[in-house]
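Q: I'm writing up a methods section and want to include an example of the input and output format. Could you take the sequence below and give the corresponding predicted structure tokens, formatted cleanly so I can copy it straight into the document?
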Amino acid sequence: MKLFQIQIILLCFSITLYAQETEKRVTSVIDSSQTDNMVLKQSFVVNVSLDSVWNAYTTKKGWESWVAAKAEIDFKINGIIKTTYDKDAKIGDDSTIILHITNYIPKRMLTLQATLTKNFPEFMKADEDDLYNIILFEPISANQTKVISYGIGYKNNVKYMSLMKFFIKGNEQSYRNLISYLETGKPSINY
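A: Here is the clean output for your methods example:
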């Protein structure tokens, strides 16, 4: 019985260390060197192949494994990714997040643009056509991939700066979830 208790304690300790380690793996930087705009750059390295990371971003199974409770994906240029965090919701209802796939280079780059629904702040809606997420995928080795995400089109003002805190926190949690899912088979949180 004592051996079992020790194994449980060691397992819990290992999970805690892994969680702390993944917290430090995502880097977020706001570049406001352009007078009118800000760029949110977030990056991390995940210890899996480029194919695994690409599949997590481009398939229904991938999205539902790390970022949303439900997803529908029509992956092509001018395609759409529809997701919801609510497992009891239906794709298409008010909780649906719609991302347009504006372009991609297979296993290298993906550009997304969100449809801003009532769930987004009003001041962002005027800038909807300027807001994009460009994601770069860089193979480091056969079992290691760097992901760099650029959120572009944010205006350099007080409202957006306040919003950046929300986006940074939410995105970092999503990326930690992705890292955990890809490296352990389980996301750090379930939607």
